[in-house]
Amino acid sequence: xxxxxxxxxxxxxxxxxxxxxxxxxxxxxxxxxxxxxxxxxxxxxxxxxxxxxxxxxxxxxxxxxxxxxxxxxxxxxxxxxxxxxxxxxxxxxxxxxxxx
Length: 100
Prior knowledge:
By secondary structure, this protein is an alpha+beta fold. The chain is 42% helix and 22% strand.
């Protein structure tokens, strides 16, 4: 199980260029919890400024990971302000891995 999770993380890091439009990227949920078997991959994408390029990059991320690896991704996309207001990261209780 750990090896499979490590492979998923390696694949995400390998495609790190896909996340250039985002200020920060976090992997969270069952994929980073040693006691759980993941049924999807949760990513938090945080951006500074909204743009059309950002939307295209979200689509690219979904397409590439689905087509190349058959992984089901649950993408949460927030502005820095939205993340601050929602305290999303702090609610993860340090159960995340910062990719970028």
